[in-house]
Write a structure and sequence with these properties.
The chain is 39% helix and 15% strand. The chain has 15 helices and 15 strands.
């Protein structure tokens, strides 16, 4: 296939349900109250001063108005809505569970392994952490190798977000994908750069259209953002990748539930935030109510009109509610009645709000597939790694499910990275799929490991080599052998062979 040749709607209509869902997840993940109000129509101009009539409506507007974030702020009132960024905590926690430590990538060929060690530096770990967080929010992430000889002397992995891709699947495997980006907007005209990835090649196209239509294809030279591709592509606008397969890997976050019967969307992933939006909305409402109690709990003094300070002719009168002492008040009294000051002091329902918020947080985390202990709930008492895994069993289970998808997708991406490195930068590299080992996200206490090693040594139940590997699981064979030899020399257990000493005087 090739890039579009007609003025078709863009993004493609069949992606509309997925893109709308991603927009909702992205808004919650961003943690921006302004975007939440825009999403649910709860801005100051959303539904006017009285939202009740529309909240009883059966239409789409009535549905979003029934959300707490869909309730508009009354005219003349300041916005008192409070947002708890738990969506960002969930997505960030998911990335930490997967890539708090770099995964171990190994291949059989020694020169390839050395080059792979160079390619998989700290920059790749940062990319993987970002990709894992974005994938947890949007339901999936695309990894692909990129390079620029003016920037670096090697290729690197780039993460493309799922809401800027048009994927094509064959039996739940990604067979082609088109990425797009808006490079320019002016006077209602939208310039888009489309990048279609197929096996062995990438097609580049520049289109001038409108907000809802792709428009017509124009030469790549017509915009600075794509002019650099013009000299590299062939007559079809294609660029060879140097890799025999598809150079893009799609890593779904989890299996999709809402689109399982939609052939176009069934293979897209599911966000960690899918289905918990109403709970997050209720959590924000709970915290906003708590803060409202605090505001109302401030001591209020109701004063007669004679206490108000004039703001000038035609400007009314006002009174400072935070003023603690009054002096020189010239108030009129009637008969034996003195000056009346009415004090209003409301109770702050701390415990009720705290219990409600904690229950909502636990339900949100449980529905997302995580344990509360992963996010610091339940105290910070020192426990062993075994106890941590027991308490965080649900989080560890979710992590295991995600690793199953990340291991395959990351291996394909690294394979393509090695192929691009060989094709573009040369070198003695044999492109191949690496073996990927994810490190344990929960580390044993060094003292506990030392005590275990001591017991095993005294029981003669493990060799020195085994004990060293237990204490330092991240070491390779060379480091382990050197450490074992050093320990044996210090203990006087490594005696030189007399036959190798030569003549002894």
């Amino acid at each position: 296939m090739s890039l579009p040749t007609r003025n078709i709607p863009w993004p493609p209509p069949h992606l509309k349900p997925a893109l709308e869902a991603m927009r909702v997840w992205d808004t919650w993940w961003s943690g921006d109250p302004d975007r939440l109000e825009d999403l649910y129509g709860g801005g100051s101009g959303g539904f006017g001063p009285d939202p009740k009539p529309i909240q009883y409506s059966n239409g789409v507007m009535g549905k979003i108005a029934r959300w707490w974030w869909g309730t508009p702020t009354a005219p003349g009132e300041r916005r008192t809505k409070l947002h708890v960024p738990i969506a960002g905590d969930i997505c960030g926690g998911s990335a930490d569970l997967l890539f708090s430590e770099p995964p171990k990538l190994t291949v059989d060929d020694d020169p390839t392994q050395k080059r792979l060690d160079v390619l998989t530096d700290d920059g790749m770990l940062a990319t993987l952490q970002t990709a894992a967080e974005v994938g947890a929010a949007l339901g999936g992430i695309y990894l692909r190798p990129v390079y620029d000889k003016k920037v670096a002397d090697r290729p690197w992995l780039h993460a493309t977000h799922a809401d800027r891709a048009v994927p094509e699947f064959t039996w739940n495997r990604l067979s082609a994908v088109t990425f797009w980006r808006v490079v320019h907007e002016e006077d209602g005209q939208v310039w888009r750069h489309l990048e279609r990835h197929e096996p062995e090649r990438i097609l580049h196209g520049l289109y001038q259209g409108t907000k809802g239509k792709l428009g017509r294809a124009v030469p790549l030279e017509d915009h600075p953002a794509t002019a650099g591709y013009a000299a590299s592509v062939d007559a079809e606008g294609a660029l060879a990748t140097g890799y025999q397969g598809l150079d893009v890997s799609f890593i779904p976050n989890q299996n999709s539930r809402r689109w399982r019967c939609n052939a176009d969307l069934a293979d897209l992933g599911r966000s960690d935030l899918d289905g918990i939006e109403p709970l997050m909305d209720s959590l924000d409402e709970t915290y906003a109510s708590w803060m409202r109690d605090i505001r109302l709990g401030k001591g209020r003094i109701v004063v007669p009109d004679s206490y108000l300070q004039s703001n000038g002719p035609g400007r009314g009168a006002s009174w400072n509610p935070d003023q603690e002492a009054f002096a020189g008040i010239n108030a009129l009294t009637r008969g034996d009645q003195g000056v009346q000051l009415t004090v209003a002091q409301f109770a702050i329902r701390v415990q009720e709000h705290r219990d409600t918020a904690e229950d909502l947080v636990n339900q949100i985390l449980r529905s997302a597939g995580y344990s509360g202990q992963t996010f610091g709930l339940g105290g910070d008492a020192a426990v062993t790694a075994t106890e941590v895994k027991s308490r965080e069993r649900r989080s560890m289970t979710t992590r295991g499910r995600k690793i199953l998808r990340w291991r395959v997708g990351l291996a394909d991406a690294v394979h393509a990275l090695l192929a691009v490195d060989q094709a573009v930068f040369g070198g003695a590299v044999t492109p191949q799929q690496p073996t990927i080992e994810f490190e344990d996200s929960v580390q044993e206490d060094p003292l506990a490991l030392a005590n275990t090693a001591d017991v095993l040594r005294r029981a003669k139940a493990a060799s020195t080599d085994t004990l060293v590997r237990m204490q330092h699981p991240e070491w390779d064979d060379t480091q382990v052998k050197a450490e074992v030899a050093q320990i044996l020399r210090e203990d006087g257990m490594q005696v030189p062979d007399p036959d190798q000493l030569g003549d002894v005087p």
